[in-house]
Structure formats: structure tokens, C-alpha cells
Design a protein that fits this description.
Layout: H1 11-29, E1 37-41, E2 44-46, E3 51-54, H2 66-74, E4 78-82, H3 83-91
Parallel strand pairs: 1-4
Antiparallel strand pairs: 2-3
Helix pairs in contact: 1-2
Length: 105
């Protein structure tokens, strides 16, 4: 799968491309095999709100309810996490991750 997002088109284009890419993977693997989506971003996030608070790399998505938008569009649970925290969880063998055979990182 390959895609290219034109960031100059704004956050709606970015989110639409994310949704389309995730749907393509989900359809290939089967919806019944999707436990949820993890979205990892550089910068500061407000976990409770599911919002990117500050990210130099994703400034267009700051303050946007990306978690809720993805959950609504994909009809599944979405977890938003900081990249460093997610890497630490993965590196340390996050116990719940061991039950899944397929990971995209």
C-alpha cells in the first residue's frame, strides 16, 4: 500500500487519507481481525480529549479531535499516544500486545 498526502490541502485531507489507508488494511485483513487503531504522534497530546496539543511535525492537526474523528469514521476504538511513550511500551514488550500476531508500527 502506498499513498501520498498533500499536507497543503489541510487537516481534512490528512485525516481522509489516514481513514482510507486504514480501511484498505482493515479490508485486506478482515474487519473481524481489527481490535482497534493506535495512532502515534510526535509532540504533546491531551490523552483524555484525544487531541494533539502541540506537534511541530503535525501543526495542522493541533487542537483537532483526531481520535474521535477516526473512531467515528472507522467505527472502532482508537488510542492516541505520544511516539516516545508508544516506543517505550513496544520496546518493553507491552503485555497485551503479545496476543496479536500482526502489528503495524
Amino acid at each position: 500500500m502506498a499513498g501520498r498526502t498533500n499536507y497543503s490541502e489541510g487537516r481534512e485531507a490528512i485525516v481522509d487519507e489516514m481513514v482510507a489507508s486504514i480501511r484498505q488494511i482493515r479490508d485486506h485483513l478482515g474487519r473481524e481481525n481489527l481490535a482497534g487503531i493506535g495512532v502515534v504522534v510526535p509532540g504533546f497530546i491531551r490523552l483524555g480529549d484525544g487531541v494533539i496539543a502541540n506537534s511541530n511535525n503535525l501543526a495542522d492537526l493541533e487542537g483537532f479531535p483526531i481520535r474521535d474523528r477516526l473512531e467515528d469514521s472507522l467505527e472502532t476504538t482508537v488510542i492516541l499516544e505520544n511516539d516516545a511513550n508508544a516506543a517505550a511500551l513496544g520496546k518493553n514488550g507491552w503485555a497485551p500486545a503479545r496476543m496479536w500476531t500482526t502489528w503495524f508500527f
